[in-house]
Amino acid sequence: MCPPRFFTVDYAINPWMDPERPVDTDRAMAQWTALRDLYLSLGHTVDVVEPQPGLPDMVFAANSATVLDGRVLGARFRARQRAAEAEHFRRWFVENGYRDVTMPRRINEAEGDFAWTGSLLLAGTGFRTDREAHAEAQETLGAAVVSLRLVDPRYYHLDTALFVLTEATETVPASVVYYPDAFSAGSRRVLERLFPGAVLAEEADAACFGCNGVSDGRNVVLPVEATGLAERLAAEGYVPHFVDISELRKAGGGPKCCTMEIRK
């Protein structure tokens, strides 16, 4: 994670961003701190990358690397305003002992568009990550990739429209949450085939970034407004935990955007 010490909205690179709308950096910091503290209370380890002046979106750490079995595939951002973030995160991995670090040649916004299911890497395209970056991720990470096309600009990253509830094991298939209308017709059919028991998010869930959740297989972190989705997940045996991400959402981010999951 990366604290939003320099958080602001000075430019618009997604439909959620409006530079004319006031932003409260202190409130963003408080919301981020509450999210970090929730992870710690649930027994997780949180590594912190230092934010840099002039890079207000560094808080969205999920966009900066994909880590699987200790292999790190860095990011290459589409928007010039975020381009410098990639090097700061690359340096963090090198300085913290990661030796297998690859920087992509194609546009690749990391866990913003890559979701590991335990057996497959779901890969989004349509707005940010290049379709060709999916093959690059497969070669670098050694994971079979399934490409999914996003069609609604409000859900410009895969992680705004889908998250993994439980990773697959040898005996149990993966489970996911997703918002069908964010995907092309063909991608919806792929998701239906892969995850027939998926929890389908409704429009209200997606609009508050409910599909930008984070799950450890039991505990699910959701925006406080995602009450309908929380009820359905509780009925499936999961334990929802709410966080306020209203300030961070002004830049198009939620719990998952703030969270890079490191799989060693």
From TrEMBL:
One GO MF annotation is: arginine deiminase activity
Q: Which UniProt keywords apply?
A: Hydrolase
Highest taxon listed in the record's lineage: Bacteria
Q: Name one GO biological process term.
A: L-arginine deiminase pathway
Read off the NCBIfam families from this record: DiMArgaseDdahMtb
- Any idea what this protein is called? N-Dimethylarginine dimethylaminohydrolase
